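Fig. S4 source data, part A: sequence.
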Amino acid sequence: MSKSKETKDIQEIKENKMGMMPINRLLINMALPMMISMLVQALYNVVDSIYVAQLSEDALTAVSLAFPMQNLMIAVAVGTGVGVNTLISRSLGAEDRDMVSKATNNGLLLAFLSTIVFMIIGFTLSRTYIAYQTDIPQIIADGTQYTTIVCGASVGLFTQILFERLVQATGRTYLAMISQTAGAVVNIVLDPILIFGYFGLPAMGVAGAAIATVIGQIFGAQLGLIFCLKCNPETRLSLKDMLPCADVIKKIYKVGVPSILMSSIGSVMTYCMNMILSAFSSTAVAVFGIYFKLQSFVFMPVFGLNNGMVPIIAFNHGAKNPKRIYKTVRLSMIYATGMMLIGFALFQIIPGVFLSMFDASQQMLRIGDTALRIISISFIFAGFNLIASSVFQALDASKYSMLISIARQLIVLIPIAFALAKLTGSVHAVWFAFPIAEALALLACIFYLKRVLDKKVKPLQQEKATV
């Protein structure tokens, strides 16, 4: 690389919008594309289940039982992507181009290795995993098919998420929006065609839903690769830098592993809740699956906000600009809480309308109406908690996110849900475990957020004052 070219690249980094643009405008500019793409993804999640529900309630239950494994893959992919994203953003702020390249290419290597691991799991353990949760033959058959396909063809999932995080790290979140939205749209279009067998194709049922999912992911991954090659010069793909570097992988997973564990804990929580609810009925399990699809409309925009916020905080931490960090955190908290309150209001006012989209039986309506109203109380606290967890990740303090997530979902939520099920014998009582756990998590988030900001950001103010 010529000296003039290198000087130009360094100047572009110094003028990066994450260090220059007004924070409110920057946050909206970064987050809005991701929020839109996340909403499209949420729409896919709901549409997918609506089509599956038209097959039968057992089919919907099968997909619900497969969800924890699917969520585990997403956890690994997103966690690795968060680690790569944070390392790249921080390195850009510190003008360390060598680390940017190594983080990019080692991240791609980790995505391929993760694919291989889940391919093996999908082809060898899918039936055992589903059969452990139910003894209904049709649910076992459908759940095994779905799990095998989404795990066995997971290369699209892992590479799509990695490429999205690469363009997010450089501030080009609109490219991630296009990639994710395009993949979700392909998925939505293919769902009815493959599930019900339109245009001369065979009706594949639940397997068709899984095939539509992986095709959409692969399409999104291909777009993501094109964007990284053509539109993202900071993150150049290089076989030389794809060779495993222990120091880089350690830095990626220092942030990524807590994120993976947090999301993986969600899979464990879902699995355990399915086991608790199956003692009441398969309908209760299906209701819980529906809740997860519906709540994505509330949580996905906040996740999009997080994805826009993390590189801003990481960049300005690397650039030693505490004022921009504080303002980013404050505005993110306000926006996230507002979105969660809107979700809470909708779940309280029209739960029956949401449930009716899934061809809900009278029993499902009876269980689901109460479930949505009670669980959504947790939304009041969740906005603050989600932003705090992402701040921890952006400031290299992911251990706090992990500890809070473990405590909320495994130490508090599951034992309380189990106790309420046993003590009351009522499925309605089980749902109260969610707001109780989220309220306790809020207290922990407030405590640790103050600690992290005082330790990681406050010294930057003092450092600037002495310069």
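Fig. S4 source data, part B ends here. Residues 16-466 form one domain.
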